[in-house]
Amino acid sequence: MRTRTYRARAFLEAAERVGVDVTVATEREQPLASLAPGTTLALDFRHAQRAQAKAREFVERYPVDAVVGVDDDTTVLAAQLSEALGLQHNPVEAVKAARYKDIMRLALGEAEGVLSPAFWVLGTDEDPSRFAERVPYPCVLKPLSLAASRGVIRADNPQQFVDAFGEIVAILAEADLDAADPGATQVLVEEFIPGREVALEGLLIDGILTTLALFDKPDPLDGPYFEETIYVTPSRLPAATQALIATAAQRASAALGLRTGPVHAELRVNEEGAWIVEVAARSIGGLCSSTLRFGSGTSLEEIILRQAAQLDLASLEREQRPAGTMMLPIPAAGRLHQVRGLAEAQAVPGIDEVTISIPCGEQVVPLPRATRYLGFIFAHADTPARVEHALRHAHGLLEFDIR
Q: What is the DSSP letter of 311?
């Protein structure tokens, strides 16, 4: 995991509950590494061969049974390390296909029974105005490998296309991608798919996808930016539609060559069926996994670690009570001075917790350049509708002073 990840605490707590020892591999040396030998490892995330060589040296002293990539930008390296160490893993090429959106589109476009939008790839050094006159509108421009809707922009005409292209080129220049990474010099263009968007959280076991949770996204995601806010589970869609979504996610995972581990899929549903927006070989991002509990209170991270370490899996049946989370959007650029209304938001019936993840005094940046959320609101209630209402009510009580 990268040092900036939201996911560290959830995975480390899960490891303690499961009873496994973990080594946290990050992109730089940890300040107290010498005080706890074997618990941390600094790897060169940009160069797989160097990372593999260092991992081989490490396992001679500290044997490893599994490697888990926590976020988007570590899934490929985790598969490469697993391959180098002879451990169970997804094929490296399959994880790369899930990581890079152009390869994903190519694989999905060739798969039978998978709905995937038409796409084109442009180099960042190309003149976008030439292509802008030919592309069908509306369309969506996006980076190949960035996450959390960063740099994803809708265009409805040639001028918007050129503007969006320039914005993405600027974002890529700031993204600290390796110069050899194709995602640093290419932009993906896709036809816009209308419809309701959902997120499926699943687990692949020998190539068979089990749906752990299906989240509705009640806010429309029609652009110009695609800021995700509310997730609510269980879905309120008809059972037949949910089955259609699960089948589409299974076929897409198979088309990419994924066989094991967590899957986070984003889909859009319209009268033509369930369209694949994205399939990622990782679990849900941010702090959103805290809305999920299985069996007698097992976390999503516990399930992932149990499967990776080839331990008996706990129940994969999600708790029945509806739950949801809201990722707090950043309304403006500037320095976060103060957050008001926290106590009032926390007191809303159904609200479990309100977490502000950016400290006051730090700079905040809205989409399309945002790299993190202001925070998260978590809720449980008797119905999905009440979960959604509680999240919206609590959010309405928060006031962000950004200067």
A: P
Q: How remote is the C-alpha of 3 from its chain's centroid?
A: 16
CA distances from 230 to 37, 122, 288, 291, 349 (A): 41, 32, 10, 12, 17
Higher pLDDT, 165 or 29: 165
Average pLDDT over residues 125-131: 95
The token pair that represents 191 in the structure block: 């036809």
Helix, strand, or coil here: 222? coil
Task: DSSP letter for 156, please.
Answer: S
Is the pLDDT at 310 greater than 80? The verdict is yes
Integer Cα distance of 80 and 67 in angstroms? 10
CA of 212: how far to CAs of 44, 200, 320, in Å? 33, 8, 12
Q: Which residue has the tokens 């926290």?
A: 342
Count how many Cα atoms sit within 13 Å of the Cα of residue 24 in the half-sphere of its side chain: 21
Of 280, 259, 210, 254, nearest in space to 88 by CA = 259
pTM comes to 0.94
Q: CA–CA separation, 353 vs 16, rounded Å?
A: 23
Tell me the CATH architecture of domain 8-96: 3-Layer(aba) Sandwich (3.40)
Average pLDDT, the chain: 95
Element (H, E) at 268: strand 261-270
**CATH classification code of 118-191:** 3.30.1490.20
Confidence at residue 33, expressed as pLDDT on a 0 to 100 scale: 76
| Tens digit of each residue's pLDDT (9 = 90 or more) over 73-90 | 899 999 999 999 999 999
Which CATH class name applies to 321-403? alpha beta
368 preceded by a cis bond (ω within 30 of 0): yes
Closest CA to 397 of 333, 334, 351, 337: 351
Maximum pairwise Cα distance, the chain: 60
CA distance 52 to 82: 9
Question: What's residue 142's pLDDT?
Answer: 97
Q: Which residues pair with 72 in a beta bridge?
A: none
Read off the amino acid at residue 79.
A
